[in-house]
Specification:
Blueprint lengths: L13 H20 L8 E6 L4 H10 L5 E6 L5 H12 L5 E5 L6 E2 L3 H11 L10 E5 L2 E6 L2 E6 L7 E5 L20 E3 L6 E4 L12 E2 L17
Length: about 230
Amino acid sequence: MNIYPIDFPKRLENTWLSLRLDLFQRYCFPTVFAQQEQGFTWLVLFDEKTPAHIRKIIGTYAKYQNFVPVYCGAYNTILPTVAERMKALAPDAEWFVTTRLDNDDALSIGFVHCLQEIVRSLGEDNLKPADTLYINFPNGLQLHDGIYYDFKDVTNAFVSLVERSANPRTVFWVDHPSIHDVSPVVQAETKPLWMQIVHDMNVYNYIRGERIEGADFSAEFPCAINNA
């Protein structure tokens, strides 16, 4: 799937798909599956041109009831497709909360619980006048070669958007470094709730955090730590 308007043909090549699927299987999927709070729907976006053999693998993940594959077409149709699926899944919802998650990154098992606790604490006054609110957990981790790095980022790639359901923009309304340009942002100080995997296929990510000696976060992030 093209997440940017520039075409990226490599996205449909078997080598690329296999490597991205491997990262997803090792880091992303297990930490979402292990969430302490399971009251959410996980819309997982795929290209409508995804080959049949990969679709079969996706079908096995869809046995997890929260996992909902969404096959998308041209770049300019992706967000409308997602918005329509959200409305179909929750037609009576007054508000939507969407969270950004890349397929090669991981969440702490407490991420959804913490996010929902914050959302439940909000009143109408918190959401005026914009009727939108970004929630960002600034404290996270980076993982590279089995080593953890403490990483703080006030516009990170795990941000969430609260918005009215009538015309949802989704968390992809703007790229995450620009969230302060379009909406109020709450910075929720917590223990690390997300983990960015730094690997050879990263396009933009590199080690920016401070190395943590002797740390073990495997209980909070139940994934392939020693293989990163």
